[in-house]
């Protein structure tokens, strides 16, 4: 009996898609359906146009506007300590005005930097030999990041050949940024309450001028790279947006023209025992809509010599005269414990540069 039923079902299957199924639409019926739908759409459009406009308002998705970094003026009649400590605690970056760097100097330095990228590849490698972290790095070699070329120079912008090209403006610009950076470090140390460990002693710090060129066709990045630093300084020559890889995620900023954007690095974060926020790496430039527009980034990083040891510099809660220091916001006024273990700067710098640890906190392994 079951076998008979199964045979009946097999016999009925062709009829399910045969005479009982609707015939496929012909071109004439499709044309009629399209005309009917078009008439209905026109009628609906006319009805919507007669409705009051508030009924048609729809929410629009907007990308977040870039943030204007907090402004810290270094004019002689203002004390920037209060503003600096608040912005450094909350954000890890700000922009400096009234810094006394003439606007024509960074423009001249940029022209000299652009000429470096126009050199033949063999000249770049011979005039800027790799002496890590100094030297030239190509974006298409096995050690490159694939996002462009970069030069890393010391404060004197030293090269193997002084007759090949002139870097006088770039050298002067680097030293002007270095002088400003040392002043910023001193203001930060006094505001937080720890003793400045470098002062103006050239043996206690190093300056690294990092010059990168944007890649045509890539609108959102300049060549990457991560090297630990105390403070980073970037002069805003023209209107341009940047992305900062902060601990809380990527932040879009747009500094004002002729200001110097200051970012606080991981070394300042450890020195302040975690009080100062940090930016991981250098600002990432947005190249805009013109694919053929050349854009370079000149960032000065004030960092440490290779043989340095990094550790928290705990501020003293009691002054020599027995009175308490003025406490920063969030402080309990009690002697605080260290949040980080001491570590070798050279080992740390080598690891974060080659592992490119921008998406996880490289200081995590040193936290107590």
Automatic annotation (TrEMBL):
Keywords: Iron, Metal-binding
Single Gene Ontology MF annotation: metal ion binding
Stretches for region Disordered: 1-38, 51-76
Biased composition (Low complexity): 28-38, 51-65
Record domain Non-haem dioxygenase N-terminal: where: 82-151
Source superkingdom: Eukaryota
Coiled coil, from the record: none
Pfam family of the protein (one): DIOX_N
Ranges of Polar residues composition bias in the record: 1-13
Listed SUPFAM superfamilies: Clavaminate synthase-like
InterPro entries: DIOX_N (IPR026992), IPNS-like_sf (IPR027443)
The keyword Metal-binding is assigned to this record: yes
Name listed for the protein in its UniProt record: Non-haem dioxygenase N-terminal domain-containing protein
């Amino acid at each position: 009996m079951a076998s008979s039923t199964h045979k009946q079902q097999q016999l009925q299957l062709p009829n399910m898609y045969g005479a009982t199924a609707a015939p496929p639409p012909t071109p004439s019926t499709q044309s009629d359906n399209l005309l009917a739908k078009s008439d209905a759409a026109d009628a609906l459009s006319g009805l919507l146009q007669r409705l009051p406009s508030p009924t048609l308002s729809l929410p629009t998705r907007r990308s977040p506007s870039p943030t204007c970094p907090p402004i810290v003026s270094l004019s002689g009649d203002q004390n920037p300590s209060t503003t600096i400590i608040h912005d450094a605690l909350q954000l890890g970056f700000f922009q400096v005005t009234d810094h006394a760097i003439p606007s024509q100097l960074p423009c001249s330095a940029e022209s000299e930097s652009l000429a470096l990228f126009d050199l033949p590849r063999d000249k770049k490698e011979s005039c800027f030999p790799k002496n890590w972290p100094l030297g030239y790095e190509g974006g298409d070699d096995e050690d490159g990041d694939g996002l462009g070329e970069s030069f890393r120079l010391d404060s004197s912008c030293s090269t193997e050949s002084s007759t090949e090209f002139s870097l006088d403006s770039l050298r002067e610009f680097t030293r002007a940024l270095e002088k400003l950076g040392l002043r910023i470090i001193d203001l930060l140390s006094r505001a937080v309450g720890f003793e400045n460990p470098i002062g103006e002693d050239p043996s206690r710090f190093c300056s690294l001028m990092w010059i990168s060129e944007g890649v045509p066709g890539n609108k959102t990045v300049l060549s990457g790279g991560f090297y630990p630093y105390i403070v980073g300084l970037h002069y805003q020559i023209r209107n341009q947006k940047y992305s900062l890889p902060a601990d809380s995620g990527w932040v879009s900023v747009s500094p004002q023209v002729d200001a110097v954007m200051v970012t606080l690095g991981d070394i300042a974060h450890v020195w302040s025992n975690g009080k100062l926020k940090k930016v991981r790496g250098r600002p990432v430039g947005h190249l805009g809509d013109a694919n053929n527009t050349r854009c370079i980034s000149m960032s000065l990083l004030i960092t440490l010599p290779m043989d340095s040891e990094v550790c928290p510099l705990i501020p003293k809660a009691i002054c020599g005269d027995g009175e308490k220091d003025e406490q920063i916001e969030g402080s309990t006024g009690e002697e605080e414990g260290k949040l980080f273990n001491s570590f070798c700067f050279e080992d740390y710098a080598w690891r974060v540069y080659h592992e490119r640890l921008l998406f996880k906190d490289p200081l995590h392994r040193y936290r107590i």
